[in-house]
Design a protein that fits this description.
Layout (H helix, E strand, L loop, with lengths): L1 H24 L23 E5 L10 H13 L4 E5 L15 H5 L11 E4 L3
Parallel strand pairs: 1-2, 2-3
Length: about 120
């Protein structure tokens, strides 16, 4: 009885870990939202903003090649501004592979928004 319950719990835990890892390493999902601002000048074109969050560069699940693909995906959206919100660099102490930070963030140099890139590093 206990062995069967333990085996079921172990399989469930393994399933949750696999789904989580798959979600963490999948290509980003683009979600679009329109935000109306009362003070926006009438007739002015909308501002296109791309937001990247929790990209955790330098860790094993964000190699520079993957970040290059994400940067290309963002550039294809032709944003006016790119915001990078928190958790830019991985804080994993133990990992199967860590990339040097300068190598890991290098693809971000290829972002091409008209108004620039603003990043909050996170803690």
């Amino acid at each position: 009885m206990w062995k069967r319950l333990f085996a079921i719990l172990l399989l469930l835990a393994l399933g949750v870990l696999l789904v989580g890892y798959r979600n963490a390493t999948a290509d980003p999902v683009v979600r679009r939202a329109r935000v109306a601002m009362a003070s926006w000048p009438a007739g002015a074109p909308p501002l296109r903003i791309a937001l990247l969050s929790d990209i955790h560069v330098a860790g094993p699940d964000m190699p520079p090649a993957r970040l290059e693909r994400i940067v290309a995906q963002v550039n294809a959206l032709k944003p006016d501004l790119v915001l990078i919100a928190g958790d830019l660099v991985s804080d994993k102490r133990v990992a199967s592979h860590r990339y040097p930070v300068d190598e890991a963030v290098a693809p971000l140099r290829n972002l091409t928004p008209r108004l620039g890139v603003v990043a909050v590093l996170g803690v």
